[in-house]
């Protein structure tokens, strides 16, 4: 009987020691979170607008960056550029028609800006002053002369 007890204790100890601690289960919501974007498109658009001295291009650049799916390498290149000359090497990172698409829209924006009424010459005569129209509502009854 004591042998049987000793054998049972030995087997129990062996079983207890043979099971290694299992790794904790992975939380699927944590594993599904992507790493932070090292070069987000809004930051790329701000940097390019700053280098080009053209603030109005920010929304267009941000849109192309997202819609045309610019690579992380391209976005990092633009973010690290400190002058327009430093943007030149970034052109190698464009793929397909990304650069042509961006250039076409930038050229269209330049054309629209040069022909906009805001840049057209204005005449020396100021616009005529207009008087406000009379209200359609009659004055209150107590305001009528007696």
Describe the structure.
- It is a single chain.
- By secondary structure, the chain is mainly α.
- Helices cover 50% and strands 0% of the residues.
- It is built from 7 helices and no strands.
- The chain has helices at 2-18, 28-31, 41-52, 58-67, 72-80, 84-87, 98-114.
- α3 (41-52) packs across α4 (58-67) and α3 crosses α5.
The gross shape turns out to be extended
Termini Cα gap: 127 Å
The total count of helices amounts to 7
Strand proportion, as a percent range, falls in: under 5%
Order of helices and strands: HHHHHHH
Fraction of helical residues: 40-55%
The tally of beta strands, per DSSP, is 0
Report the structural category.
mainly alpha
Mind summarizing the main beta sheet? none
Mean pLDDT, as a whole number?
Answer: 75
Which residues sit in consecutive blocks of at least 5 with pLDDT less than 50? 5-11, 118-127
Taking all Cα atoms into account, the compactness measure Rg is 36 Å
Describe the secondary-structure layout.
Layout: H1 2-18, H2 28-31, H3 41-52, H4 58-67, H5 72-80, H6 84-87, H7 98-114
Helix pairs in contact: 3-4, 3-5
Task: Throw out a few tags for this protein.
single chain; 146 residues; mainly alpha; 7 helices; 50% helix; 0% strand; extended
Give a quick rundown of the structure.
By secondary structure, the protein is mainly α. The protein has helices spanning 2-18, 28-31, 41-52, 58-67, 72-80, 84-87, 98-114.
């Amino acid at each position: 009987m004591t042998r049987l007890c000793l054998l049972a204790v030995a087997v129990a100890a062996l079983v207890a020691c043979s099971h290694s601690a299992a790794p904790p289960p992975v939380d699927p919501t944590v594993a599904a979170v992507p790493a932070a974007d090292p070069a987000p498109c809004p930051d790329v658009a701000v940097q390019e607008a700053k280098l080009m001295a053209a603030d109005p291009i920010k929304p267009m650049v941000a849109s192309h960056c997202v819609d045309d799916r610019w690579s992380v390498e391209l976005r990092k290149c633009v973010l690290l550029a400190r002058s327009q000359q430093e943007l030149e090497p970034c052109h190698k990172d464009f793929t397909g028609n990304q650069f042509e698409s961006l250039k076409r829209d930038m050229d269209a924006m330049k054309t629209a800006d040069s022909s906009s009424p805001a840049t057209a010459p204005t005449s020396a005569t100021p616009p005529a002053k207009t008087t406000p129209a009379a209200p359609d509502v009659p004055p209150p009854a107590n305001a009528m002369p007696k």
